[in-house]
Amino acid sequence: MRGKVLLASGFHAPVAGEVDVLEDALIAVDGEGVILSVTRRGEADYDAVKARAVAEGRLERLPEGSYLLPGFVDCHVHAPQYPQLGGALDVSLEVWLQKYTFPLEARYADLAFAKRAYGLLVEDLIANGTTTTLYFATVHQDATRALVDTCLEKGQRALIGKVVMDNVESCPDYYRDASVDAALEGTRALIDYVRMHPDNAAGLVKPVVTPRFIPSCTDATLEGLGAIAGECGCHVQTHCSESDWEHGYVLSRHGMTDTESLDRFALLGRHTMLAHSNLLTASDMEKIRVREAAVAHCPLSNAYFAGAVFPLRAALEKGLHVGLGTDISGGPSASMLENCRAAVTVSRMLETGVDPAVDAATRANGQPARIDFRHAFHVATAGGAKALDLPVGQFSPGYRFDAIVIDTTAKAGSMRLWDEFDSGDGVLQKIVFTASKANIATVWVDGKTVSSR
Ligand SMILES: Nc1nc2[nH]cnc2c(=O)[nH]1
């Protein structure tokens, strides 16, 4: 789409809870993939913009029944866990890590295996419409570099961290950073690799300081990572107050919550993404807001490993930055659409309560907690992009053209629109609730086609 003008109908949601419907809009993209202008039908220069694009042979049109959406921004993925997606869901978080996840992640010492798994993952995520992903890799330097190379090669926007875990008390001998120095040097080396990569001049991939979570890191390492994040101006990602076990562990080791502890290690800032964050206190939420850090809400994963639902509506009302995450493989789906649906569903359950043995009057939690498809779509796109401070996720001048086409007529797809019933943002509601990978016809990152059927 570079250098073209796209005539398309579609949707974006720059503001939480609101959908902006684009009808036959003209979106002009420059030679680098940046949106130059968005001209709506009815605007004074609409006909002139269209006529010029036609005369210059630069007009492209979406077919009837196809809709333009911003690409999805997945704010929490464990790349090495893709081979266990849909499995290993039978135990608690602390057991799952030791029994399934650390042994699987340790396999990435084998570079050939890493390349194969990462190639499949990145291709599948792109085909699912995910144009930006925030990735945890593994402790391994070579395999993490292979993930960087794969994203650059396949054209996915990505933020990638070498996982840091050096605490002998909680990390197995076979899968651990050897020392504080090794953990910190490995992090610096990955930052340099990403920033100096010859194919990354445009900054499509960014490095991320990635302490796995407080239980897996020593204090010396957390302190060192905070210093690196400050020096290098990098993004930071970690898990925060995910489950009762994890939240309780940090309270007993540090005498404070994850949020407070990350803050004192200088790991809580504008470019920090806290995965899960289900058990935040009111003052944790306030601290995250003041620091302008962000939460990656992972609704499917939380059903299996958190035993709690993140209060998304309250967080958005408080003004927190929030994105949506699949949490592959804690969440058993690579689809952001499925996670949008889960976000809506769990919010309804949080509002009403779920135990039929409890009287209806007391079953509800007493606070309005429900969100709808508009909020879900926002956190999956513009909200996640804003949380990561990236110029994507919406169709506005100056933003990168990262976008997908939903073909609502695709034979192998899972949705049907009805002329008699579906119009306006009702079409987006149907897309959010019923579209699937087979409906995703084209995916662009930076105006380049990275997937098409
Ligand atoms: N969901 C999830 N939580 C974690 N906490 C520490 N590591 C992990 C992980 O891999 N997945």
UniProtKB/TrEMBL annotation:
An annotated GO cellular component: cytosol
Entry keyword set: Hydrolase, Metal-binding, Zinc
One example GO MF annotation: guanine deaminase activity
GO biological process, one term: guanine catabolic process
Transport as UniProt keyword: no
Enzyme Commission number: 3.5.4.3
Span of domain Amidohydrolase-related: 67-450
Coiled-coil region: none
Pathway, per record: Purine metabolism; guanine degradation; xanthine from guanine: step 1/1
Cofactor note: Binds 1 zinc ion per subunit.
First-tier enzyme category under EC: hydrolase
Catalyses which reaction(s): guanine + H2O + H(+) = xanthine + NH4(+)
Top-level taxon in the UniProt lineage: Bacteria
Needed co-factor(s): Zn(2+)
Family of the protein in this entry: Belongs to the metallo-dependent hydrolases superfamily. ATZ/TRZ family.
Summary of the function given for this chain in its UniProt record: Catalyzes the hydrolytic deamination of guanine, producing xanthine and ammonia.
Protein name: Guanine deaminase
Naturally occurring in which organism (per UniProt): Rhizobium daejeonense
Source lineage: Bacteria, Pseudomonadati, Pseudomonadota, Alphaproteobacteria, Hyphomicrobiales
